[in-house]
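Narrative of activities, Objective 1.

The group set out to show that a structural description can be obtained from nothing but a protein's sequence at a throughput compatible with the screening campaign. Below is one input-output pair from the validation batch, recorded exactly as produced.
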Amino acid sequence: MRQANYTLRPALESESSQIKDLIHLVGINPTGLDWKRFIVAVNDGGQVVACGQIKPHGADIRELASIAVNPEYQDQGLARAVIEDLLSKTERPVYLMCLSKMEGLYEKFGFKAISYEIMPRYFQRIYNIFRIADVVRHSGEELSVMKME
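Output recorded for this entry:
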């Protein structure tokens, strides 16, 4: 594990491929990756080692998304720094989707799991797709939609 010396800042267009590579490396949803919405943590060598974005879904629905940390830089507070920076600049409410086992991480920031009935339609659709796909995958994992007021 490397000690993280990093700069946290808005992403540059030239870092778009590094962001996509990091998202694929950690195995999270690779859709909707617009570099203009990203905050990145960049090491002294110019490598993107962590990232995250706020995705808009219509006029008043914002999603904390694409939180990724290079495995070599995990457990050094990078995800927390990215999340706190994004949330400090974002109007409420903010939503996110995660595996249920990750709820504890996001509860520390003030997110609460919400029921299907009160999810915006976008999240209901993704939730339904996840459940259908899990019938095939048999992972037994549950998707959680969370909201911060």
